[in-house]
Design a protein that fits this description.
- The chain is an alpha/beta fold.
- It contains seven helices and six strands.
- Helix 1 packs across helix 7 and helix 4 packs parallel to helix 5.
- 35% of the residues are buried.
Length: 220
């Protein structure tokens, strides 16, 4: 990636069955397609990194796992077949639990996927996968939990990566309240100028890039 370019990453939970129904507006497939539109808007397209997080049914007792993939517009359909659908779910207790696609190979074929707020694990993966790349990184981070948000923000602040802009969205309204930022010196735009929240699942590429553009302009 050339200096001055932008790499877009979308981070998504796997905790709801309907996330794997591509026709739904809240599906993983739709959100990844929208992230590709964001990449086209901010940097003329290219590849989008996709990070999926949740609990693997193959690792009982494990808190969470994170899987990093990538997708481009030309291979979106194949990526959806590999990562954004569960072809035979639900299979039941006595069904065939042989993995059919890449998602099932990593997260298993059982039906009980639940998101976990494990900031360190997710933020570490984002840091690891971006630390050697030049340019700015635009992370669109999907939330669907109500706990652990402060830990997540603190993990981002502790990471101290001025080349990463974090745009949160989803079902976690606490992060958009004044009290969330008012306590413990978490002042929005002060301590964390590279963190924005747009808590609407149905965002557009224009709305989700507003904060990123302001951030880049301020750094120019």
């Amino acid at each position: 990636m050339a200096a001055g370019s932008v790499r877009v990453m979308i981070v998504l939970p796997i905790s709801r069955a309907w996330y794997f129904e591509p026709r739904r507006f809240s599906s993983i497939a739709r959100k990844v397609k929208k992230a590709l539109a964001v990449a086209d808007r901010v940097d003329g397209g290219g590849i989008v990194d996709v990070v999926l997080y949740g609990v693997s049914s193959q690792q009982k007792g494990s808190e969470s796992m994170v899987v990093h993939t990538e997708v481009s517009s030309k291979d979106l359909d194949q990526w959806v077949n590999d990562w954004a659908v569960r072809p035979s779910a639900p299979r039941g207790l006595f069904g065939d639990h042989t993995p059919v696609n890449k998602f099932e190979e990593h997260f298993g074929v059982e039906d009980d996927y639940y998101g976990r707020a494990l900031p360190g694990l997710i933020v570490d993966e984002i840091h690891r996968s971006t630390m050697s790349a030049k340019g700015d990184h635009f992370v669109i981070f999907g939330l669907d939990w109500g706990r652990g948000l402060k830990e997540l923000v603190r993990a981002v602040i502790k990471l101290d990566r001025p080349d990463i802009f974090w745009q949160f969205f989803g079902d976690a309204t606490d992060i958009d309240h004044h009290d969330f930022w008012g306590r413990d010196n978490l002042k929005r735009g002060g301590v964390a100028p590279n963190i924005w929240a747009h808590l609407n699942t149905y965002w557009t590429s224009r709305s989700i890039t507003r904060g990123f553009r302001k951030w880049r302009k301020a750094r120019a």
